[in-house]
UniProtKB/TrEMBL annotation:
It is an enzyme of class 5 (isomerase). InterPro entries: Aldolase_TIM, Ribul_P_3_epim, Ribul_P_3_epim-like, RibuloseP-bd_barrel. Coiled coil: none annotated. This is Ribulose-phosphate 3-epimerase. Pathway: Carbohydrate degradation. It holds the Pfam family Ribul_P_3_epim. It comes from Blautia obeum.
C-alpha cells in the first residue's frame, strides 16, 4: 500500500501559489489536493477551472480534484480537461452517484467518492468495487483549520475492513484536522492518503513536508 501526503492548496498563500507548488514538488510531494467549492453544497467558495488550468502548466504532480459542489456531474469533463488526474465527488451531492462514477471513469481519470462525517460507510459500500478511492471527511466540509472529529476513526476502520474483506484495491483518503497526533490515528486505522492543509503550509513549507513525510514513514514501518 502506498502512503501519500496530499497537501491541500486551500491553505496555500495565494499570492505565492506557483512558488509554493514548485516547493512541494521539489520536496518530493506527488499528489496535490484541490478543493473546489461552490458556496452551495458547502458554505465557502474556493476556485475553479481557470486556477487548475493555470497551475497545471507549472506542475507534473498528480492533481487530486475534490468537487465539493452540488450536482458535480455537470462539471466532471470540464475539470478533466483542465488537468485533473482524479475526480472525487460527494455521495451526498449526486442525484445519481453510479452515473457520476461512470462519467469519471469514462473521462479516463481515477474515481473518488467522498462522504461527510455524518454519512455512514454503508451508504457507499455497494460501490466500492467501482471506485479507486474513498475520501472520508474527518471535519465538516467547507472550511480549513478545523479539529479532527474522533468519531470518524471508527468509519476508517469499518471501511478498511470492508475493502480487505472483498480484497479490493481501493485507497482510503482522509481530509480534516490532520496533525502529528491524528496522522498516527488515521494511518493505524487504515487510511493511506492524508490530506493536510495548515499542517503543511503553516511555517516553512519545505521543512514541514520533510518532517511530515519522515513521520509518515515511521508510522508506516510500525504498521508493516
Amino acid at each position: 500500500m502506498e502512503y501519500r501526503l496530499c497537501p491541500s492548496i486551500l491553505s496555500a498563500d495565494f499570492n505565492r501559489l506557483g512558488e509554493q507548488i514548485q516547493t512541494l514538488e521539489k520536496a518530493g510531494v506527488e499528489w496535490l489536493h484541490i478543493d473546489v467549492m461552490d458556496g452551495d453544497f458547502v458554505p465557502s467558495i474556493s476556485f475553479g477551472m481557470p486556477v487548475i488550468r493555470s497551475i497545471r502548466k507549472e506542475s507534473k504532480m498528480f492533481f487530486d480534484v475534490h468537487l465539493m459542489v452540488s450536482a458535480p456531474e455537470r462539471y466532471i469533463q470540464d475539470f478533466v480537461d483542465c488537468g485533473a488526474d482524479s475526480i472525487t465527488v460527494h455521495a451526498e451531492a449526486c442525484e445519481d452517484l453510479e452515473r457520476a462514477i461512470e462519467l469519471i471513469r469514462d473521462a479516463g481519470v481515477k474515481v473518488g467518492v467522498s462522504i461527510k462525517p455524518a454519512t455512514p460507510v454503508n451508504d457507499i459500500s455497494h460501490l466500492l468495487e467501482d471506485v479507486d478511492m474513498v475520501l472520508i471527511m474527518t471535519v465538516q466540509p467547507g472550511f480549513g483549520g478545523q479539529k479532527y472529529l474522533p468519531e470518524c476513526t471508527e468509519k476508517i476502520v469499518e471501511l478498511k475492513e470492508l475493502i480487505d474483506r472483498e480484497e479490493l484495491d481501493v485507497d482510503i483518503q482522509v481530509d480534516g484536522g490532520i496533525n502529528d497526533e491524528t496522522m498516527e490515528i488515521v494511518m493505524k486505522a487504515g487510511a493511506n492518503l492524508l490530506v493536510a492543509g495548515s499542517y503543511v503550509f503553516s511555517g516553512d513549507l519545505e521543512t514541514n513536508v520533510y518532517s511530515i513525510q519522515k513521520k509518515m514513514d515511521k508510522i508506516k514501518s510500525e504498521i508493516d
